[in-house]
Each structure stands twice: as C-alpha cells, then as structure tokens.
Amino acid sequence: MPEISRFFGIRITMYYDDHTPPHFHAEYAGNKALIDIEHARVIRGSLPSSQLKVVLAWTILRREALMEDWLLTKDHEPLKQILPLE
Predict the structure, then answer these.
(1) pTM tops 0.90
(2) Cα distance between residue 53 and residue 60, in whole Å
(3) What are the residues facing 7 on neighbouring strands?
(4) What confidence score (pLDDT) does residue 50 get?
C-alpha cells in the first residue's frame, strides 16, 4: 500500500484495486479511517477529533491530486506524492 503523504504524524495511503467510492486510508497512532475523497467524510473507522479535522481539510485542499492518484491505482501506475499540510 503506497504512502502518498505524511503530515503531523498522520500517514496517508492508497491501495491498488481498492473498492469504490474513491477513498484513501488515514492512520494516526493506531487509529485508522477510510476517507471518501469526493465528500471529505469518513467511510469507516475513526481518528481522534483534531487529526480528523486536519485530514478532512487536507482532503478538500488536495481533492484533485487525490483523484488523480485514485485513477492511477486503477491502472496499476506509480502514485504521486501529494503535498502535506504545513
């Protein structure tokens, strides 16, 4: 599962051949969540409140790049790193 970004201790990854809707995996301190890219919402799992707010804001800011990587996973192409929040 390729890591596409990391910020504030949060690891962002995508799986190849993952199910729809387009989403990514966020992990922080053992907590894991699947985040819907289009709607910037949790599909499954959970993160602490502060980290979830950061991840959802990042999703909105990076939605286009996230969708580009999602499409790359479908073609089994290398994923691009996505800018973290600073």
Answers:
(1) yes
(2) 11
(3) 10
(4) 98
Q: What is the pLDDT of residues 57-71, one digit of tens each?
A: 999 999 999 999 999
Kindly list the domain boundaries of the chain, sorted by start residue: 3-74
CA atoms of 73 and 55, how far apart (whole Å): 20
**What are the E-state strand segments in 8-84?**
10-13, 23-28, 31-36, 41-45
Taking only the tens place, the pLDDT of each residue in 1-58 is 799 999 999 999 999 989 999 999 999 999 999 999 999 999 999 999 999 999 999 9
Contact in structure between 10 and 55 (CB atoms under 8 Å): yes
CA distance 24 to 6: 13
Q: Which tokens is 7 given?
A: 């910020």
CA angle 86, 15, 37 (to 5 degrees): 55
